[in-house]
Amino acid sequence: MKIVLTNDDGYNEPGLAALYRGVLPMGKVIIVAPRDPQSCAGHRVTLNDPLRVEQVSDFKYIVDGAPADCTRLALKQFSPSADWLIAGINPGANLGTDVYQSGTVAAAREAAISGYKAIAVSQYIAPDQKIDWEVTGQHVAKILSRVMEKTLNHGQFWNINMPHPVTAASVLECQFCELDKNSHDYTFQKNSDRYQYTGIIHNRPRTPGKDVDVCFGGKISITLLNI
Q1: Spatial strand order in the sheet of 117-123
Q2: What are phi and psi of 40, to 5 degrees?
Q3: Is residue 117 very low, low, confident or very high in pLDDT (cuts 50, 70, 90)?
Q4: What does the alpha-carbon distance between residue 120 and residue 158 come to, in Å, rounded to a whole number?
Q5: 3 state SS of 220
Q6: Angle 107-81-43 (CA atoms, 0-180°, nearest 5)?
Q7: What is the CATH classification number for the domain harbouring 67?
Q8: Dmax (CA) of the chain
Q9: What residues pair up with 29 in beta bridges, in sequence order?
Q10: Which range marks the domain in which residue 83 is found?
Q11: What's the total number of domains in the chain?
Q12: 202: how many CB neighbours lie within 10 A of its CB?
């Protein structure tokens, strides 16, 4: 099996390294990731300017572009016979309406647009907690093998969000659930001619049984998304 990995935080981030360790036993893996952080880049793509690519090894490419650019290059140039594209592991949840601003989700969506099977993976960060990437990677590897056995139709892809905090001994339940369509509760703080976004993700509105509620409640949320 051939697997492409990417993310929206940059080629040298620990979440990507954890994902690589988790999927390496599954087959041949290549990494095509942005050089710089692209969090909240959404589905931006580069059309008019050339994309600089640095090949640092036989399986790793660094792209001066957005996550969706990385997907396009990976599947058109570097690994067109790939079986899967997996984006992540993002430090921070991509739940509900976050999927429209997320570069992680956009990378997976771009693969689905091109007819490839894809998954976006994110790790929610609980208040005043830090991610143990070794632990997260172990749990992600377990759930990926289950999700990759599921059927995906053309134009569909998976969005997985891990709960937090977790330990290596945690027995995590997973729940297939729908996207929460509630908007964020936010405002702006004005300072002269500048407006600063203010909002607390942990307090966001949630609908029982939807992905935000499932993940915040301590389960792995798995949502089938359509282009």
Answers
A1: 53-55, 60-63, 28-34, 2-6, 84-91, 117-123, 156-162, 220-226, 174-176
A2: 65, 20
A3: very high
A4: 6
A5: strand
A6: 15
A7: 3.40.1210.10
A8: 55
A9: 3
A10: 2-179+209-226
A11: 1
A12: 11
Within a domain: residue 39? Answer: yes
CA end-to-end distance (rounded Å), the chain: 24
Chain segment 52-68, per-residue pLDDT in tens: 999 999 999 999 999 99
Q: What angle do CA 74, 112, 215 make, to 5 degrees?
A: 105
Q: Specify if 193 maps to a domain.
A: no
pLDDT band at 201 (very low <50, low <70, confident <90, very high): confident
Cα 10 to Cα 36: distance, rounded to the nearest angstrom:
5
Residue 30 Cα distances to 68, 73, 84, 118, 222, angstroms: 16, 12, 11, 14, 24
Task: Decide if pLDDT at 40 tops 90.
Answer: no
Q: What one-character-per-residue DSSP string does 46-80 give?
A: --SSPPPEEE-SSSEEEESS-HHHHHHHIIIII-T
DSSP symbols for 76-117: III-TT-SEEEEEEEES---GGGGGT-HHHHHHHHHHHTT-E
Burial (CB count within 10 angstroms: exposed 0-12, middle 13-18, buried 19+), residue 169: exposed
Please give the backbone phi and psi of residue 80, each rounded to the nearest 5 degrees, phi first. Answer: -65, -15
- Closest among 105, 49, 59 to 226, alpha carbons compared: 105
Q: What is the pTM of this model?
A: 0.95
Q: Quick one: CA dihedral 78, 42, 216, 118, positive or negative? A: negative
